[in-house]
Model the fold of this input.
Amino acid sequence: MYEQNIIESARSLRVKSGLPKDFWAEVVNTSAYLIKRGPSMSLEHKMPEEAWYEKVVKLSHIRVFGCVIYVHISDQGMNNLILSLRSELSSVMARMSLAIASEMMKSKGRSLVE
Done:
């Protein structure tokens, strides 16, 4: 019965949010997360964590499923990201240049020693 609740909840979350089927795993994980944190009749309408630890559970981190989010990257983090991307780009360009040079050499009947 628990699995059926997760599947039904996941299906409605995905349809309501308009996400493609490619996100099915994330939708199912979110559905299970929400169901586990929901109140239960067998626990007198308390959440499992609330009943176990006898304290109020904070749910302020939960957002609307499928909503747009933004990530803040600090200046130092942005500099590191740019340097990393430049390094990766130059590495990709070097591999592409090597592949192009190799193809040109092959077309002329020569080989390129790496």
The radius of gyration is 26 Å. Helices lie at 2-17, 24-36, 48-53, 75-107.
